[in-house]
Amino acid sequence: AKSAGKNRYCFYSNEMELQEIRRMELEKDLRKALDNREFYLVYQPKWSVKENRLVGWEALIRWSHPRLGTVSPGEFIPIAEETGLIVPMTRWSLKQACRQCVAWVSRGILQPVSVNLSVGMFWTGSLHSMISSALDESGLDPCLLELEITESMVLHDIHEIIRQIERLREMGVRISMDDFGSGYSSIGLLDRIPLDALKLDRLFTNDLETPTKRAIISAIIQMAGNLHLDVIAEGVENEEQVSFLTELGCHVMQGYYYGKPMRVEQVDEWMLRKGI
Ligand code: C2E
Ligand code: CA
Ligand code: CA
Ligand code: CA
Q1: Which pTM value belongs to this model?
Q2: Cβ–ligand 1 contact at 235 (below 6 Å)
Q3: Which segments constitute the EAL domain (predicted)?
């Protein structure tokens, strides 16, 4: 048993070394990824069940690594955040997403696009100018841009974040709280951060089995309504979830059931199928 324990230790240590090597490699390559045009955006639809129509798109970044293939944002965003590469990367995403939204608008598809923001972007001192230049350069109407922020920002200087969010909303940009309910003091934030929408976390949406869970979701949906916030459920994968959520008063959904994140070409096919 002792030797087995030893082997296991060796196994873990090798594993950790491999992870560390991969991380270092990714970090090195991430520095060149933007110049090498290895990033692209995919878009996932937001769907109103009540109105049976498309109500927006979320832009999600992808990294097509020359050797490793597609690296998931779950792996490279933390590295980008730690190294500061998140700043030029976000600038690129914002420009790209605004430009794409304008292209859709010019074809008569008048739906907002949302971009995810890491909390660190609030400390760069350049978030506001980054967003206004993405809007100016593309010509996108600010009300067609939405920024998705996460609850983790309660751990930071909330006054400064609120000040910046207020300035962004004055420009006409929409703000939504991503992953709502996944942790931290969600509810306490709602009367402090000026928001337009709440996105119910996927873990929440996927766990509607017990009456208790349903009671909690139902209370959140009602509260959001009283606060005049839109509610959108994330990670909706099946009809059962759709009917539960609809019953509980949530009418806008996002998830594989309606559409996976797609490259622009696939978005066209998807819209054709939906008769858009
Ligand atoms: P998120 O913003 O919560 O995005 C939702 C994630 O859930 C996406 O993963 C999406 O592909 C996935 N998803 C959507 N519908 C379903 C579903 O029905 N079932 C399941 N199982 N998954 C679903 P993705 O694209 O891997 O992104 C992961 C996270 O990386 C995002 O979570 C977001 O926090 C971050 N991220 C992605 N793009 C960007 C970006 O451009 N900037 C920043 N700062 N973060 C980004
Ligand atoms: Ca998001
Ligand atoms: Ca989310
Ligand atoms: Ca998430």
Answers
A1: 0.94
A2: yes
A3: 23-275
